Amino acid sequence: MNEAIVVFMTAADADEARRIAGRLIETHLAACVQILPETESVYRWKNEVQREKEVLLLAKTTADRFDDLEKEVRGMHSYETPEILAVPVKGISEPYRLWLLDAVDKDS
Known about the structure:
The chain is of the alpha+beta class. It has a single domain (4-103), classed as 2-Layer Sandwich (Alpha-Beta Plaits), CATH 3.30.70.120. 31% of the residues lie in helices and 39% in strands. It has a 4-stranded antiparallel β-sheet with strand order 2-3-1-4. Strand 2 and strand 3 form a beta hairpin.
């Protein structure tokens, strides 16, 4: 299960996004987390349409680290139901794949 995945997450603001990203890197739950500036999300919550400014995070990790990553994010996130959505990587350069595996290795 060390196939590469990208995990999409949103945060309420840049400070929360930085805290999440830092923690994921410190704990080897992600090799890299990109924080994209403010975006607008439109979604249905409790049967009402919401429009909120959010910050998008893209975490590169492996499928076998997803459960721990999700638990860590849920434990520190301000949202009742945070977005934590993983998608498989269909192609990846070999040098990047090797770097990613090393970066999420708990023993490195």
